[in-house]
Design goal:
The protein is mainly β and 253 residues long. It is built from three helices and 16 strands. It is globular. The protein starts with a helix and ends with a helix. About 6% of the residues have low confidence.
Length: 253
């Protein structure tokens, strides 16, 4: 390899490194927050995310429900991802959306671990619901963070406290209790669900709360407009309510 080729190879390696997690080529390969060697928030090629502080703090993913049909965003007909300046934009299209599309924009938080998300519906048919799930706050460092799906064994000791459109998850040992907080769209139908039953969003949402693997699921009417999510760890600079999230998104994105 001559000198010029070595230089080109080095540049390409660095370029790839800032986009893909160096820990492997698994599903969660995009670093949204943290570093390549110590990621804090990892993302997938479809809207699904995992939190590592550095212990596994949870998994969040999106889906769609239309009457008795449902699918995860990763199963949609066309999913495009644009990465720019550390921010992610997903454009989703599928037969369920007809001629419409859903645009998901995500940015990491400046004052806290976590992210803020905007979900925009464009030219959508009626009768659609956005589905989301959160769970798997394992409180242990995963040996391979690119494999951080919502697994039932990660959910065992999670405790959820829901207040309106916000919730808090308590996880870990009682003497070393950890917390992650979230704000989801207002008017969401939030349920305690069974992480053993994730075949599709509708099955998950209707799975019931009698389980040894509790997770939260929620649905919200998908509108031709914008909905917001935020996941964060609370501190003196980060303590959010739903009315604050649109402005927070504008600031971060």
């Amino acid at each position: 390899m001559n000198k010029l080729n070595r230089i080109i190879f080095a540049i390409l390696f660095i370029f790839i490194g800032i986009h893909a997690y160096a820990g492997g080529d698994g599903k969660f390969s995009i670093v949204l927050s943290g570093t390549q060697t110590q990621p804090r928030v990892l993302a997938c090629k479809a809207p699904e995310f995992s939190f590592h502080f550095p212990q596994m703090a949870g998994n969040f993913k999106l889906g769609l429900i239309s009457d008795q049909k449902s699918l995860w965003c990763s199963e949609m007909k066309d999913v495009k991802l644009n990465k720019k300046d550390g921010k992610l934009t997903y454009t989703l299209e599928d037969n369920l959306l007809k001629e419409g599309r859903v645009i998901v924009r995500v940015a990491k938080l400046t004052d806290s671990d976590g992210f803020v998300m905007e979900v925009e519906g464009v030219n959508l048919p009626t009768g659609l619901n956005l589905f989301w799930s959160f769970g798997g706050s394992y409180a242990k460092v995963l040996p391979n963070k690119t494999d951080s799906d919502l697994k039932p064994e990660y959910c065992k000791d999670n405790v959820f406290s829901v207040e309106g459109s916000a919730f808090t998850v308590y996880y870990g040992e009682s003497l070393d209790l950890k917390v992650i907080q979230a704000v989801v769209p207002e008017e969401s139908d939030i349920r305690l669900s069974d992480a053993h039953k994730q075949t599709n969003p509708l099955t998950f949402h209707e799975s019931g709360k009698r389980t040894d693997a509790p997770a939260l699921t929620g649905t919200r009417k998908l509108i031709n407009g914008k909905l917001y999510f935020c996941f964060y760890t609370q501190n003196t600079k980060a303590d959010y309510n739903s009315f604050m999230i649109p402005e927070l998104f504008k600031k971060e994105f």
